[in-house]
Amino acid sequence: MLTEAQATTMLRLQTEMNAKVNPAWIKAAYPYLRAVVVEGAEAMEHRGWKWWKKQDCDLSQLQMELVDIWHFTLSHLLLVHGGDQQHALGELLAAHTADSVTFDGLEYRIADLDLVAKLELNIGLAAARRISLPLFSALLRDCGLDWQSLYCQYVGKNVLNFFRQDHGYKAGTYRKLWGGREDNEHLVDIMRTLDSTAADFQHQLYTSLQDRYQRAR
Question: Who contacts 115 (Cβ-Cβ below 8 Å, separation ≥6)?
Answer without folding.
Answer: 47, 139, 142, 143
